[in-house]
Amino acid sequence: MPIRQLPDELINKIAAGEVVERPASVVKELVENAIDAGATRVRLTTAGGGLTLIRVEDDGVGMDEADLRLSVERHATSKLSADDLDDIRTLGFRGEALASIGAVSTLSVASRPAGAASGLRIEVDRGRKGEVHPQPMNRGTVVEVRELFGAVPARRKFMKSERSEGAAITDVVRRLAMANPEVHFVVEGADRSPLNWPGHSGEGALSARLMQVMGADFADNAVPLALSRHGVVVAGLAGLPTYSRANSLSQLYFVNGRSVRDKVLLGAVRAAYADFLFRDRFPAIALFLAIDPGEVDVNVHPAKAELRFRDAGAVRSAVIRSISEALAAAGFRAASTVADDVLQAFRVPEMAEVMPGEARGFAADVTSFSPRPMPAASGFAGFAEPSARFDPLPTSADAEAEFPLGVARAQMFENFIVAQSGESLLLVDQHAAHERLVYERFKAALAEGPVASQAHLIPVVVELTEDDCARLEAAAPTLERLGLYLERFGPRAVAVRETPALLGQADVTGLIRDLADGLAEWDDVAVLSDRLEAIIGRMACHGSVRSGRRLRIDEMNALLREMETTPHSGQCIHGRPTYVELKKRDIERLFGRTR
Ligand code: ADP
Ligand code: MG
User: Fold this and answer.
1) What are φ and ψ of residue 482, in 5° steps?
2) Which residues keep their CB under 5 angstroms from ion ligand 2?
């Protein structure tokens, strides 16, 4: 076949395939245009998940007749003045959206600029441009897209259900609304529940908008980000580690007001939370980055959802730093939803369950939040061994009010400290808390130089596989920095001479086995120094006051006081909460005392 120049109609259809993937991408382009036009109010109406109708109405600057005719042409844009792709300050710039949408739908664009007596309207029907007609309307622009992909049955087949297309549209609007808190957004249609987010201005605008979009729950369990460093400005809200999620859907990234997916940002957030979260948990975060437009290339993706930073290192370190600082400032705060979860676990027993001799029903219920199952009580035998310690303490209301984590009152099940602080009851997981304290002490000690060790009179010999021994031997110099001295002891054993003083009476065999497992997992000993924190994490686990150890009241109080002054002590190193707080009024709620 000879080469031929493709007709415009076909070119537009091909381009449409890139820009207009699904109804949500149309919504994105149209709402971005409204924002670029300086709208203060955007109203979106959809039908049939956007496949039947998408209508976007704005009160922006509008277009005169010449612009209106040009707007639906390919590569026609008002947003690139100096032919300079390095200084893009608008959301659009490619001049492709309206032309592409018009190629695969029935498109109508009506507009009335300031000063014009009335509006004008142009229609594009599956790539065929119509005439301009008068249209009575308010100032601004109304774009209607009907029967999207009606002429492209192949594409229509790929659409998901109306409901999931509708949900994708909502997601797009959410992101645009977050990035533009001053704009009033209204979303409506027979296919959805309506949204109405009035605009905000001034200082608290962003947090007010995040509250609307992400919900008060997130706002209550997040800390504000604020950092400006080497030309990178970070703002937003970072969720507390205890408020983590099982997937990354609650992570929203914005660069210069544009919602993006970006590996650099994702990686930086992951790194910032590495201390607190297991691999399979994801923090919730809304991160806003402002950076000189010349420092970022947004033209690497047709829908502009991806970008490239010129100095990824600077961006990464600014993001990590801002999150670390914010989380450290949050100190021992744990997620408030943790207490809610606890309340859910309590259940008022049904009448049948509290019948004499039928205590099992209640006991079974208790196991849903107790760390190990309790045997069903038979008679009073279950009470013969008290598992709670009471050390009545001279009550001092002052002391309670003074300490955020309160004053210890009792220890339950040899692991949970019961404390009272003002109007709150606190339950502290002593093992989890101590693990975090040891971890943080370790990190602080390491920053000062090699960690102090204590010698064992008789070296502890630990038997392992040959591979494990070899890996431990290779890691010995690194481990020595952490206060752990060991050497090879025959083909399948190592002898441990000294252990970190911080760990106290550690279970050396368990510790070494666990480290060997870790080394096998990480394997590449060359980068072991990057793994120091992971190694410390494993060590801290073994030095901890294991559950099952009785503590005196003064030991419990010492633990609480140390938690209050230790960063991140609201979560153990695996991201689980170290304590839960029940407000007096929550407890009253349990007993139906509230009205
Ligand atoms: P781009 O946004 O990349 O410039 P589009 O195809 O989305 O390309 O729009 C083409 C042009 O039409 C824009 O540059 C703008 O001048 C004009 N335009 C589109 N939508 C609107 C609107 N809602 N209000 C005012 N002008 C608009
Ligand atoms: Mg555009």
Assistant:
1) -95, 5
2) 33, 92, 97
